Amino acid sequence: MERELYGREAIFGNDGLAARLTGLTPYGSARVAYEHRDDPPVAVLTGGRGMGKTAALKQLRHLYREITPVALVDCEAVVPPADPGPGWTPVTGALPELATQLTAKVHAARPVQFPRLSLGLVAVASISWTREDETRAQRDLQSLGPVLATVDTRGDAATGWVTKVLTKLAASAFDSVVPLAGMVAEATIETVLEETFSRFQRRSADWYGSYPHAGGNGRIGLRQLAVDFERGGDLRRRAEDHLVLALVADLVRAYGGLARGARRGRPVLLLDNAHTLLGRQLVEPVLRQRASGVRDQIALFASSRARDHEGLSHAVRRRLPEVAHGSHWARGSEVTSGILAVELTPLGPAHVQAAFDRHDPVGRTPAGLARGVHRLTGGRPLGVALLAQAAGEALVPGTPRPGSSQPGSLVPGALLDRTVELREDRAPVRVADELLARLLPGQQLDVLSVLAAAHGEDSARLLATARLRGRSLDGDVALQVRDVLRAQDWPVGPEYFVADPLLRALLLHRLRFQDDDHPYYAVWRAVHETLRTAYAPGGRCPSVPHRLHQELVLGRTRDCVTHLRERFTDGDVTAWLGSLRFIASAPYPRPPGYAGPDPRRAVALGREAAGSLPDGETGLAGLGERAVELQLQLRRLLHAVWLLSDPLALPDEEVVDKMAHELRQLSGRHPTGNSVLWDAATHWPQDIRAWRPLSMPPGSPDTGGPGTGGSGQRRGNGGSDA
How far is 419 from 400, CA to CA, in rounded Å? Predict the structure, then answer.
């Protein structure tokens, strides 16, 4: 069963994009007026991993498969068989799969036949057949059985062909001028036409008369097609393009001529991961043919992980909500203007809440959990779906799960440790592991986890040198990882090397728990100690805010609070607030499976047990009365901002109010910056309640980096990579 999709009404609505391009509503199969009757665009859904491109294509297949011919192929998953012959390429592997799916029975229409495609595939499959190796020929023809069955429904149609083909070849006069591949293809085509094709179907061979150098003779065209395919290079590409158009021609024939009026809507081709070479080989011949004025009336949907792929260079671009009732697409002079590129947008908070309501219909999850998941995932549908399922299953009575299953213990970070059952034939999987496996498939997660701790490219290279020595013989590990992330359409930024918040949180979660050595966390500690040393005075990239950020990651708060106290009376209070915000953005080193109250809450509210920490930890030793008061006040404020900024936690109203109170108290103590601190006391709670990052300057659009006052320029002694 296909999973329920949210926020995709622009595609699946009864007047949505799918309905307008196919001519049929997804639900109920009612007729819909075509938006582009004579010249439909190729609709390409764009977006990074986890944005729901594959889910949308699968949903299209699910909704249309009984009302119109539909086929879905993942262009990254077409792999050669165990013993491929010379006639196998990704294109000749994908086309039979598409044709076979398109022949499935639909309401009130005969199955589509593919005589033109069958002839072309048989021709290229025959290029290496010899009389001395009948097994090869038998195997190749049998592999084409499903597509040949669209022409001849006898299951053993290919069984007797091989002997006849090779006998005919042996009887042929040897002509050294004619390539052997062409002779075999000609003998094969003659046999197939005689043995399998009906009198009406034999005219399908005439379609190949338009092939280069065929002179209008279809059999010569098929022979030349086989010769070009064997030669390889651009000639093979030309042959493969013609095979793609053969499939298109067979679909056109099924919807024209004597069949006109017998079918409703348009056939649907779905190509997942079409940004790959195979995807381009399947799409571009169709685009070129349409640009030349030849129409085919096929609804072609594809997906591309790369928004800026060169194949989309002249596409008409729209965001998903913009195509809900009309695409406003028009063909330009360039071939790729035949593409309508639709960027899938993140889910909104209401969509995330709907996903939670589906898995928790009685509303037992904590208030704000859905919004917290929206903040963590950025609305990425894959993350939303898995975390919503984890929350629902955590509250099922009698279901064993790590940690407490009480609603109050559920925060976004705790959901990462939960397990979910995705399929009945598969063991339950941990949410964090499943998300990483699907967002970064086939990557070296141990390497990525280490580099996720870096702030920018310089610190990533530093970590690679110190912690990943010997992991690559090809050069700079950090730059290789940067290129991998960019190739997967993940942002790499100056503030954080892994810039996507969800991906960074998942990688840091893995770094924290991968060695399973609570309470030492050797790998986590070693990585962050390396960065702390590099940011210290005399290190490779000294920066006070970055060093204190690392201190907080390691659970050490004294130096952070002391620095904030010592710099509190500096003239630039905006820069001071920026440092506070950046230092407090440190990941919180929570214990695994911890289900109790967040320890930061008690500190932020001033409810630490008396004498629970020595003066050496609080930094109170040797301070005067007013300095002690300020040190404790800033300790409370730091923990409040740390907790409220944590995407793995949930905002706490009491802590929000306490943060505002502390900022107002500080406003009265500051000699010059009281208005800025007062504004922070007003605007930062608003930011938290609106699930926004803390604004810098308070109440303004956020443009600053770590330790800045919102100007975007580094202040103090910051390093080169922050």
Answer: 10
